Amino acid sequence: MRVAVIGLGRFGYRLACELFDRKIDVIAVDLDPRRVEDFEEYGGHALALDATSEIELRRAELHRLDLAVVCIGEEVEQSQLVTHLLKNQLEMERVISRAHTDARDTILRAIGSDEVLRPESDSAVRLAQRLAFRGCEEFLELAPGVAMVRLRAPKHFVEKTILQLEVRPRFRVNIIGIRSSPGDGESPTKEATLELVPEPGYTFQEGDELLVVGREEDIRRMMTG
Fold first, then answer.
1. Do 147 and 194 form a contact (C-beta atoms < 8 A)?
2. Using CA atoms in the order 49, 65, 113, 149, what is the torsion angle rounded to 10 degrees?
3. I need a surface site. Which of 12, 55, 131, 132 has the fewest CB within 10 A?
């Protein structure tokens, strides 16, 4: 996954550092060269540019990344403009923005933000943990580098069994639960079921949610195949 963190205030800088520490390909962006230098000294890759300029965004090709997190929290108009440019002008796949009030939350969603963070409930650490896993729904750190993660089954799992995928020997993780998709084309009213400690012969279906325990790096490796 490739992530742009736009705005290196306290939240944005911490998020960029947390993603970098988890070996996520992150590009930090800020108009202030001093903040850019701080992140480069940390070891990461950063750009000094005006994110409210479509020309500069396009030149930096940030819209070609998988995700952008707009961390310009206090500058409301700037945050809205950057979100609008990324989603509507540059057609970026996914954009997450921050809002301090319900009204700003509503506006950002109307503009096109795929997800809006509320600073009182979303910390940079928790967000970095979640973003480190594509399709992650929940993240619980059990020990440094070890987690229990609830996530959607990756596409390369569909129509294959746990045994065929050799989940445990290949990736050194344990799938301790599977919540099946609530319906499919043949049975749209089918209810979701939860299977704890699934059998090796379980066949994954699109939409299944997995509860996985293991080292963070091994879970990411499992998700990418």
1. no
2. -130
3. 55
